[in-house]
């Protein structure tokens, strides 16, 4: 017996505990992404939005949205909602009507289905049977059901009934990074664990008609956000000769909140759906604090400063956010090329977006700023303002 304060640790228990832990670091083993079919070009978005919201008479506001769309650095976005769906549900557009039930009703099936489309791709790349998934983490801001989208998703994918599920609701744009951080801890603390992480978001939950000149936040949301889902398989201790192929080792993960920024990215679920308002100050707060957050996360690992040595998967919350991060970290222009590419092709899809960025980095086979030692940072940004930092090592097995 070993006495630790008033606790008694038995060597037998310690051996059992040790045997449950993985030896190696958690790794990203596969990535899959999916989007709904309805694609709207950004240059046509202002016309589209003011038409479907029956607000075409408001030409001043429409040209304001057109200007914001033009400077957004977004080319196109995908949406689950269609003209027909909006015609059938006027409550989604009319701000005076309650619409939460309609939005949640559609999300009940649409979120797990989009999540399944991304997960199926990740699992096909992974190469092992669905029943080998031991843990499932699902993130979404679209819905708040019991049981959640995780149960429906597990059934769609044919996961084992014993799969250990974790549901992350309303974590905002950092949910992709948050889910990966939790998956890392699970994989490293449960020998043999294979964690399926899936984030799926539909802007249907936050679609609303324009109000007036003072309501710029609505225009910003409508101009930037799109629908998408992304999935990752995370696991440690890949056996030699196995079908599995580690893409990125997860070296370290941390989270911080920017001081006094609670109101800068705030939302609430109400009768009119999800009202989320990133404040004008969000860009400045990130710009002024991101380097300090990174120093605190990376200095203990001996990695602080010299940011151009690393590759970067930064959440593309908006063009101005990427410009701010690039300027303050003095990054070479190719370092945020993957983030800018994903913003341009899909807009801000909230949680899944940073996983799309990681996928883009591996698809371009290291041409996007992966240095000789292969180290990089996945940076999640969301309400809080939360800053998620995951240090990755690109294995080169793309
Ligand atoms: C939207 C933009 C592309 C527009 O760029 P522009 O170059 O056109 O010009 P700009 O920045 O001056 O903005 C145009 C007009 O919109 C206003 N404006 C800008 N951001 C605003 C905001 N968040 N709320 C309300 N108004 C806003 C400006 O004051 C200006 O008004 P006027 O014309 O009257 O002077 C850029 O501002 C941008 O990328 N902003 C960051 C968007 C953001 O906050 N993303 C985070 C989403 S949340 C997220 O990702 C994570 C999460 O929290 O979950």
TrEMBL record:
CDD domains: CHS_like (cd00831). The active site is at 173 (acyl-thioester intermediate). Pfam families: Chal_sti_synt_C, Chal_sti_synt_N. Residues 16-237 form the Chalcone/stilbene synthase N-terminal domain. Keywords: Acyltransferase, Transferase. Residues 249-394 form the Chalcone/stilbene synthase C-terminal domain. Signal peptide: none annotated. One of its GO terms (molecular function) is acyltransferase activity, transferring groups other than amino-acyl groups. GO terms for biological process: pollen wall assembly; polyketide biosynthetic process. InterPro entries: Chalcone/stilbene_synt_C, Chalcone/stilbene_synt_N, Polyketide_synthase_type-III, Thiolase-like. Belongs to the thiolase-like superfamily. Chalcone/stilbene synthases family. This is Uncharacterized protein. The lineage of its organism: Eukaryota, Viridiplantae, Streptophyta, Embryophyta, Tracheophyta.
